[in-house]
């Protein structure tokens, strides 16, 4: 059976008490902020370097249309992987080298979003990280330094 959603008659879907909603930052309450898209929030929090950095990465990955308060259960597999990638890109520190493993990160993506994803993956590689991608998309495969063709693995075993 499909999920049933009802709107709270007290807060009318704002998800916070009136006391919480009375607190404002630059004229917006928490509900207003959570209903902003990543793109809108990037403009709104433009003065805050930390937030702008994190939101900017999400926007670069093609996630600018997501709302800040969007439930993770509503994300597609590709969106969820890009949110995780944005999290990792936002916390990268100099001197650390990580291995990132992605399973079909282009699933369900538009061609322009695949290009954005590849730019961000290249940023990881440029910073000295290793990225291992399990992928069938030829645009992604042609950007690889090394390709392992699973149909030929038995030749080497």
Automatic annotation (TrEMBL):
Transmembrane segments: none
Stretch forming the signal peptide: none
Claim: Nucleotide-binding is one of the keywords in the record: yes
UniProt-listed PANTHER family: UVRABC SYSTEM PROTEIN A
Annotated family: Belongs to the ABC transporter superfamily. UvrA family.
InterPro entries named in the record: P-loop_NTPase
Gene3D superfamilies cross-referenced by the UniProt entry: ABC transporter ATPase like domain, P-loop containing nucleotide triphosphate hydrolases
Full protein name: UvrABC system protein A
Organism: Caldanaerobius fijiensis DSM 17918
Domain of life: Bacteria
Record bears the keyword DNA damage: yes
Major subcellular site: cytoplasm
GO BP annotations, alphabetical order: DNA repair
GO cellular component terms given for this protein: cytoplasm
Compartments where located: Cytoplasm
Keyword entries, A-Z: ATP-binding, Cytoplasm, DNA damage, DNA excision, DNA repair, DNA-binding, Excision nuclease, Nucleotide-binding, Repeat
One Gene Ontology MF term: nuclease activity
């Amino acid at each position: 059976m499909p999920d049933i959603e009802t709107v709270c008659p007290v807060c009318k879907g704002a998800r916070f008490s009136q006391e919480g909603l009375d607190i404002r930052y630059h004229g917006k309450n928490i509900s207003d902020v959570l209903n902003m898209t990543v793109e809108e929030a990037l403009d709104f929090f433009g003065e805050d370097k930390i937030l702008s950095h994190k939101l900017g990465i999400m926007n670069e990955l093609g996630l600018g249309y997501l709302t800040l308060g969007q439930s993770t259960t509503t994300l597609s597999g590709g969106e969820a992987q890009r949110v995780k990638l944005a999290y990792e890109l936002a916390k990268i520190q100099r001197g650390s080298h990580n291995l990132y493993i992605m399973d079909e990160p282009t699933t369900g993506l538009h061609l322009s979003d695949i290009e954005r994803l590849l730019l961000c993956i290249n940023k990881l590689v440029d910073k000295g990280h290793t990225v291992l991608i399990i992928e069938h998309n030829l645009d992604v495969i042609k950007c690889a330094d090394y390709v392992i063709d699973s149909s030929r693995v038995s030749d080497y075993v």
